[in-house]
Amino acid sequence: MTLQFPTIADCIGNTPLVRLQRLPGNTSNTLLVKLEGNNPAGSVKDRPALSMISRAEQRGDIQPGDVLIEATSGNTGIALAMAAAIKGYQMVLIMPDNSTAERKAAMTAYGAELILVDSMEGARDLALQMQADGRGKVLDQFANGDNPVAHYTGTGPEIWQQTQGSITHFISSMGTTGTIMGVSRYLKEQNPAVQIVGLQPQEGSAIPGIRRWPEEYLPKIFDATRVDRVIDMSQLEAEQVMRRLAREEGIFCGVSSGGSVAAMLRLSQEVENAVMVAIICDRGDRYLSTGVYDDPQ
């Protein structure tokens, strides 16, 4: 008998969905979070990273030995560095120089080359310029349909099955918007009444991984009709709930995940007998050097 063992790529997805026990308080609602930090490279971005490389390979758009280029603020870069290592590609990642030390170290650990620039918009511009100069091929998570497809075929069906079709609200931070676009498309096909809630930072707030994009940089994969409501989140509230998740629920995550749960707690005050799902995008260990967990309160 030949034993069949999975590869690391086979371990992406099928993440746990768990119930919050203390943060919701006395409520008739069920508040659930999907633990995307359980993916091999530690974030929800493992799904689109593998999807973008694998599907481009299947179409013949890329071949092993090609140089791949991507602009990233962090999690996508780590996930792409892992996926490129699995598939045998050289990965060049362009990112803002204010990204955390843990993120930079993780990318280089997987063998990626890093180029640091001033801003995310600058990173996107440089990636396209390098492609125009023939220095590699840009995957472009912001305009690549293989990004939301990963969530339409994976994350969305998992949530539907895990809640046995009882989900009433889905809450997700919006960065590239791939997660919310793919999950929304799937859930709305199953039940158009499911409410899709997106999260963006308040003006002046800096929450890693989510953005208020200038109109000219709005991701091309984004379709506003797929989002029923957008909540503005302050950095302070997102960080407070992030710390509470660790201390009161044992869920160690990043700031954008804290924001998603903060939005879910707000929504829970408005409805009864709802089944809400928020995405926990990543793990908290890649934020420790920022001091965001140092607050004693």
Q: Which features characterize this protein?
A:
297 residues, alpha/beta, Rossmann fold, 6-stranded mixed β-sheet, 4-stranded parallel β-sheet
List the helices and strands and how they pair.
Blueprint: E1 17-19, E2 30-35, H1 46-59, E3 67-71, H2 75-87, E4 90-96, H3 101-109, E5 113-117, H4 120-132, E6 137-138, H5 146-162, E7 169-173, H6 178-190, E8 195-201, E9 229-233, H7 235-249, H8 255-268, E10 275-280
Parallel strand pairs: 2-10, 3-4, 3-6, 4-5, 7-8, 7-10, 8-9
Antiparallel strand pairs: 1-2
Helix pairs in contact: 1-2, 1-5, 2-3, 5-6, 7-8
Family: Belongs to the cysteine synthase/cystathionine beta-synthase family.
Protein name: Cysteine synthase
Binding site for pyridoxal 5'-phosphate: 75, 175-179, 256
